[in-house]
């Protein structure tokens, strides 16, 4: 028995007509993991999901489920179920009939169909709408029904394609939480496609970031947020402050970067052998770790900290927080979020000189 529920090996998809949608996609998923796929529109998330579901043929590479080769197996013979954004609920059937349908197609006997249908209706707490038709359901209810329809088949892997995309923000948040609890409770592997980074990070045990058909990074949400491995991830995920420069050297787990602001240090995200002194790199610091103080207050002089000097160009209050935009010589302005009280106490004002300071160990150096 394989240790993995799902393995993708060099998965590739070229559509008829020649569009290269996915290339060199490698992934190993453990049983019960919640994996999010995130990336900009057209990066290949849905295509990858559809290849796993068997709804799209695989051009080359291999797809294993629990160690067994499913690369060219038909969709209905795969132990997967798919939830689509548009729910795909049959309008002429009741909720219960919709849920039972997938079991009837599989030829289960009627007592077993009833037992499973009732159990999943109970689990998802949709007993009150079991006789309703689609036209009478709210967005959140449709979402639950489509989830029930997928789960009732007891798949090894549940595939979800932007399942919350059609819901308003509040409902989306509460269904996200429910979905996460349900997944932990059932212990089923979920593969969840979204283009919303906050959703990918809050739901996934691991997140796969895709760009232009390729995997950019596969990491836990925290690592993705704090230790980007590529310029794309540094820009796409989180709220990073980026300073470009040239590598001076990288050793003992520290990389030094020559920038407009002098030499700054960070943890290298590349193999030390792969990037040479003089190569283009970027220093990336998550804004949560960047402190803003009045120039010369001395915070930056602490051991292990780096500082760059700038000028406040604007301060924009939004409730308890303020956005301070800082102009820096030679690079784009940086926007810092801070507590209003702190900014007032520090006496920061437009036109004032400030220091931006962070612990060097919080910064990451990425090969450009
Ligand atoms: N049936 C198809 N035939 C030809 N090209 C396709 C087809 N489906 C998708 N593509 C192309 O493949 C690439 C990847 O598309 P895909 O839908 O997988 O991206 P995505 O990341 O899911 O995007 P979105 O977030 O917009 O759904 C795109 O360039 C798209 O135009």
UniProtKB/TrEMBL annotation:
The keyword ATP-binding applies. GO terms for molecular function: ABC-type transporter activity; ATP binding; ATP hydrolysis activity. Keywords: ATP-binding, Nucleotide-binding, Transport. Signal peptide: none annotated. Gene3D superfamilies: 2.40.50.100, P-loop containing nucleotide triphosphate hydrolases. SUPFAM superfamilies: MOP-like, P-loop containing nucleoside triphosphate hydrolases. Residues 6-237 form the ABC transporter domain. One of its GO terms (cellular component) is ATP-binding cassette (ABC) transporter complex. Pfam families: ABC_tran, TOBE_2. InterPro entries: AAA+_ATPase, ABC_SmlMolc_Importer, ABC_transporter-like_ATP-bd, ABC_transporter-like_CS, Mo/tungstate-bd_C_term_dom, P-loop_NTPase, Transp-assoc_OB_typ2. Belongs to the ABC transporter superfamily. PANTHER family: SPERMIDINE/PUTRESCINE IMPORT ATP-BINDING PROTEIN POTA, SPERMIDINE_PUTRESCINE IMPORT ATP-BINDING PROTEIN POTA. This is ABC transporter ATP-binding protein. It comes from Oceanicola granulosus (strain ATCC BAA-861 / DSM 15982 / KCTC 12143 / HTCC2516).
